[in-house]
Specification:
about 190 residues, globular
């Protein structure tokens, strides 16, 4: 089954769960995630919002909605959702990483470094945080340091080669020999 079919299947599945139990905040969250993966943001937001209405303490909905806001460039809303996620669970490394990444996108590099570092302190093998640290170093125009972090991400299982080759966060170091070597042939 291709990704589109996988997400359509998930949407159908969770729609049935919601029909049987309209208060299933987890089903709203999961269907919202499938909509997000398909790029159907309006529907994703509606489901994440409903999940939060049903259970204001359900951490995944804040992280997922924050990711959706980040994807469409609503950075203040993304940070607010990640702030709420951190408040709900101060030990959630992804909440810190994702908020740090939004800070990176908005040029708030000190805040980005604080949050990404915190995520890595909690989980040194978090491939997303390792990649975020590489992106932060790229933003600071530190290609060797960026490559060092990116190498750690790859060694720990990071495999989104398309992202590495196209993301604007790496534009400062694409010319660096170490970066070319890392993504060569991928």
């Amino acid at each position: 089954m291709d990704k589109k079919g996988k997400y359509d299947h998930a949407i159908d599945k969770y729609t049935k769960v919601i029909a049987a139990n309209p208060k299933s905040y987890g089903a709203y969250n999961n269907r919202g995630l499938a909509y997000l993966k398909k790029g159907l943001y309006r529907r994703a937001f509606a489901d994440f919002d409903r999940a939060v209405e049903l259970n204001p303490d359900f951490l995944p909905s804040y992280i997922n909605r924050g990711n959706a806001y980040q994807e469409i460039g609503y950075y203040e809303q993304a940070i607010a959702d990640f702030d709420r996620a951190v408040a709900l669970d101060p030990n959630n490394d992804m909440a810190y990483n994702n908020r740090g990444f939004v800070y990176l996108l908005t040029g708030q590099l000190a805040e980005a470094e604080r949050d990404i570092t915190r995520a890595l302190e909690m989980n040194p093998k978090n491939v997303y945080a390792l990649n975020s640290m590489a992106e932060l170093c790229a933003a600071k125009d530190q290609p060797d340091e960026a490559c060092r972090w990116l190498r750690k991400a790859i060694e720990n299982g990071y495999t989104n080669w398309t992202y590495l080759k196209t993301s604007k966060t790496y534009r400062n170091i694409r010319h660096a020999p170490c970066f070319s070597t890392l993504i060569e042939g991928k």
